[in-house]
Design brief:
Blueprint: E1 2-3, H1 13-22, H2 32-53, H3 60-78, E2 90-91, H4 98-108, E3 112-116, H5 127-139, E4 147-151, H6 158-172, E5 184-190, H7 194-197, H8 203-217, E6 224-229, H9 242-251, E7 256-261, H10 269-285, E8 289-292, H11 300-318, H12 339-349
Parallel strand pairs: 1-2, 3-4, 5-6, 5-7, 7-8
Helix pairs in contact: 1-2, 3-11, 5-12, 6-8, 6-11, 9-10
Bound molecules: FE2/S2 (inorganic) cluster.
Protein name: Ferrochelatase
Enzyme class: lyase
Pfam families: Ferrochelatase
Length: about 350
């Protein structure tokens, strides 16, 4: 289960930030190995305060483990041909990092593995970065003799869409029935630098497809927008920004909003701090009543969706109806100049050989 991860304790914040700024697939910096530690050190105190404010760390590891354990148990029933199944977590920036997970898999004698991204929508900055890291570890011989296949995206899977839609409905139900229909559904996803968007990254398209699928399931019961959060630094990022959108809706006289995280599968700092403690608070000051749709966390509908996605993948790959990677994964961004992307895709297409 691949994801970015987050510091489980406040003390892990610095290492998390350092790993994040060291990742050239996410943030390409000149003299990365020198600059990254400096930026991480400078930003640590402020981010530590944010983790403090959400209870002393990110719950992403706890939720990912819980989702993984329950998914694996379901998978034993749904696809007994490949049982027993075991879920491992490999985070890109926090523990357990890929090398730690590789050691654990080696000790367990794993021979067959699925790299299952926990980002529903594909971006080369997120899933692509995790796959590049896995590829590097594989090439370095840290994960030997494992036959790999990849689940690289699933942003319109009906189970995922259903789980999000149910959480939206629960949030909507908090508004009085008489005015419920006027509530704006504000879908929020992590933004991307325009340099990434403009090299042909598929993320914006895929997040939009998730939103369209959720709205279809909700029978377009409410007006909605997709907006983007968590931009950092002075360069241009995909907009409109979530905070600005809330202020704009207040200016237009809107009084009710449901905020919906659409690109995260569990709570972490972007939901618990940024959405709940920053944006929602600010919107309330502007006279808007805001409720946030819950993150997927321990949703049984969502965990069943994960198991269904994995079972269908295992069936297709085992019966030869699909290769180790999807057709879409083989295509590099038209503007990609990162040689590792090409090598990684070819390596996984050969089953990690
Ligand atoms: Fe998208 Fe390399 S940046 S494939």
């Amino acid at each position: 289960m691949l994801n970015m991860g987050g510091p489980s304790t406040v003390a892990e914040t610095h290492d998390f930030l350092k790993n994040l700024f060291m990742d050239g697939d996410l943030i390409p910096l000149p003299m990365q190995s020198m600059l990254a530690p400096l930026i991480a050190r400078r930003r640590t105190p402020q981010i530590e305060k944010q983790y403090d404010a959400i209870g002393g760390g990110s719950p992403i590891l706890r939720y990912t483990r819980l989702q993984g354990e329950r998914m694996a148990a379901l998978l034993d029933e749904l696809h007994p041909e490949t049982a027993p199944h075991k879920a491992y977590v490999a985070f890109r920036y926090a523990r357990p990092l890929t090398d730690e997970t590789a050691r654990e898999m080696r000790a367990d004698g794993v021979k067959r593995a699925v790299a299952f991204t926990q980002y529903p929508q594909y971006s080369c900055s997120t899933t692509g970065s995790s796959l590049n890291e896995l590829f590097r570890r594989g090439k370095a011989g840290e994960i030997n003799d494992v036959q790999w296949s990849v689940i690289d995206r699933w942003g319109t899977h009906p189970g995922f869409v259903e789980a999000v839609a149910q959480n939206v409905e629960r949030a909507l139900a908090k508004f009085p029935e008489a005015t419920r229909q006027e509530t704006v559904l504000l879908f929020s996803a992590h933004s991307l630098p325009m340099s990434v968007v403009n090299r042909g990254d598929p993320y914006i398209l895929e997040v939009s497809a998730s939103v369209a699928a959720v709205m279809e399931r909700l029978k377009h019961s409410n007006p909605y927008r997709l907006v983007w959060q968590s931009q950092v630094g002075p360069s241009a990022w995909m907009g409109m920004q979530t905070g600005e959108a809330l202020k704009g809706l207040a200016r237009l006289g809107r009084k009710q909003v449901v905020l919906i995280p659409i690109a995260f599968t569990s709570d972490h700092i972007e939901t618990l701090y940024e959405l709940d403690l920053e944006y929602a608070k600010e919107a309330r000051e502007h006279g808007i009543e805001v409720h946030r749709a819950e993150s997927l966390n321990d949703s049984p509908v969502f965990i069943r969706a994960l198991a269904d996605i994995a079972a269908a993948h295992l069936k297709d790959v085992t019966t030869g109806q699909a290769g180790p990677t999807s057709i879409q994964m083989a295509l590099r961004c038209p503007g990609c100049t990162n040689a590792t992307c090409g090598q990684q895709k070819a390596w996984f297409a050969r089953g990690g050989r």
